[in-house]
Automatic annotation (TrEMBL):
Coiled coil: none
Pfam family membership, one: MFS_1
Gene3D superfamilies per record: MFS general substrate transporter like domains
SUPFAM superfamilies: MFS general substrate transporter (SSF103473)
The organism's taxonomic lineage, starting at the top: Bacteria, Pseudomonadati, Pseudomonadota, Gammaproteobacteria, Pseudomonadales
Keywords, alphabetical: Cell membrane, Membrane, Transmembrane, Transmembrane helix
Segments traversing the membrane: 24-44, 56-76, 88-109, 121-145, 151-169, 206-231, 237-258, 270-288, 294-318, 330-354, 360-379
Protein name: MFS transporter
Record's subcellular location: Cell membrane
GO molecular-function terms, A-Z: transmembrane transporter activity
UniProt superkingdom: Bacteria
Signal sequence segment: none
Length: 387
């Protein structure tokens, strides 16, 4: 995830400043990427049940490396814009195939009483790479080797990480196909129909969509807002991102444990929805009022980032609301929502009007979070420690 996170907070300015894209075209490119990420997220869970998580992870890693190489050689270095857009978009299936197939693997292999903590560790590693350590690495490598070579460095890290995971994990008992789904066609049918067969799972997926849609939108507009409007340098901005998402990754661990004690639903409602709603307002208005104050900006953004971690127990809650035979399909819908957020965030930016309409975007984000809190009341499971 470090390799994927390297570009997360400079990709949009790179397209605009170095490749001649308009801000709207850059947002559209990232939205197309989000469509493929959404497709990859949906099929990551379903294909893991049909083919096995390990095979899906391999497919994800290979597709990431191949299409990133096409993007950099033909799209960027040769200047063929349509190839850049197409290859970057298709690369979108890579990280959800790899990461969310592994999430299925973790859920299948972990006992119920440890599930909140185990998914906390998953999101700890996920958030450590995307965007935290990735952004930190980029803040040092861009001044030294430039933006294009930083992309290549990310590709190398993807290959190394895939090798470590696929060759180093020895638990093969849970890595294969799930027998309860029968043949491949039946598996896809069950994954599709769960949307209306299990409405509480669907509600949980909506809450998951609320979780990171604003965060993916911020990846597009925040660089323009904090660098061009507030007055931070690119390095300062990337370092702030690193600080606040470092807080997020440790909060992921904390809320996994808190959820196992305080209750999964309660944690998601109060620390996830409510805290994120307050935090997203603070990260906009406080810097706008005080200017490029490094410490205050980092604190305000950290409140939001810690709130994002409050959604961690949702990963344990959603599959627990269905019988064991349906949990792979519940996770498929959950990962679909996670991937759809990567599309809806940039798409929302494009529709609303980019960084020039930042205040409206922020209020939309706050409404999403605060509106998600009542929906959490519908998410009940007898396995929830707070039930």
């Amino acid at each position: 995830m470090i390799g994927d996170g390297v570009e997360s907070n400079y990709f949009s300015p790179f397209l605009v400043d170095s490749q001649g894209f308009s801000e709207g075209s850059a947002a559209l490119t990232i939205s197309l990427y989000g469509i493929f990420a959404t497709i990859g997220s949906w099929f990551a869970g379903t294909l893991s049940a049909v083919l096995g998580a390990r095979k899906v992870m391999l497919i994800g890693a290979l597709s990431w490396v191949v299409f990133e190489a096409i993007f950099l050689t033909i799209g960027v270095q040769a200047g063929v814009h349509w190839v850049a857009v197409a290859s970057y978009a298709i690369r979108g299936i890579g990280y959800p195939f790899f990461a969310y197939a592994f999430l299925v693997w973790v859920n299948l292999a972990t006992p119920a009483h440890q599930r909140g903590s185990s998914v906390g560790w998953f999101w700890f590693a996920f958030g450590a790479g995307l965007p935290t350590l990735g952004s930190l690495l980029a803040s040092f490598t861009i001044p030294m080797i430039g933006e294009v070579l930083t992309f290549w460095l990310g590709t190398v890290l993807i290959a190394v990480g895939a090798g470590v995971a696929l060759l180093g994990i020895r638990d093969l008992r849970h890595a294969g196909p799930a027998t309860q789904n029968g043949n491949g066609l039946a598996g896809f049918k069950h994954a599709l129909t769960i949307i209306w067969r299990r409405p509480r799972v669907t509600a949980g997926a909506v809450v998951r969509l609320v979780n990171t849609t604003p965060n993916f939108a911020l990846f597009v507009v925040a660089p323009f807002f904090f660098i061009h409007q507030i007055g931070f340098t690119q390095s300062q901005y990337l370092q702030i991102v690193t600080l606040v998402y470092t807080a997020n990754i440790f909060a992921n661990l904390a809320f996994g444990v808190i959820g196992d004690r305080f209750g999964w639903k309660r944690t998601v409602t109060w620390f996830g929805c409510v805290m994120s709603g307050i935090g997203v307002l603070a990260l906009y208005y406080i810097p706008l009022w005080v200017g490029p104050n490094y410490l205050l900006t980092a604190i305000c953004w950290a409140i939001f980032a810690i709130g994002l971690a409050g959604f961690v127990p949702l990963t344990a809650l959603v599959p627990s609301m269905v019988p064991p035979a349906e949990r792979g399909n519940a996770l498929a819908l959950y990962t679909l929502a996670a991937g759809l957020a990567a599309f809806l965030g940039p798409a929302l930016v494009a529709v609303v009007g980019g960084a020039g309409r930042m205040e409206l975007l922020i209020w939309i984000f706050a409404a999403m979070y605060l509106g998600g809190a009542p929906l959490c009341l519908y998410l009940s499971s007898s396995e929830d420690p707070g039930y």
